Amino acid sequence: MVLGTALTSASGYGFTYQSSLSEISMLAPENTARANAGFFIYAYSGFTIPVIATDGLADGIGLVPAKANFSAVQLACLASLALAWRSRLDGLEGAEA
After folding, report:
1. Domain ranges across the chain
2. What is the mean pLDDT of the chain?
3. Which of 19, 58, 61 is nearest to 39 (CA)?
């Protein structure tokens, strides 16, 4: 089970990175290297900062409450992204009418 999870996770990240880098290269063909560098800064910050913050929080309040807070923040971020995406889609539908 662990091996299957590791392979699924690794392939998911691989495909995500590959498609993201391809999209960035198409959006900035004259500055591909600069755009890719910026992409990796944001990507690694997104992977690193939550882990470090959760570790610091776990040292202060304990592991289970830190995980609960981390999950709550993730759910709040996901909900706000879903609402923003929904409002953007609604705006696009209104523009077509």
Report:
1. 1-48, 62-97
2. 83
3. 19
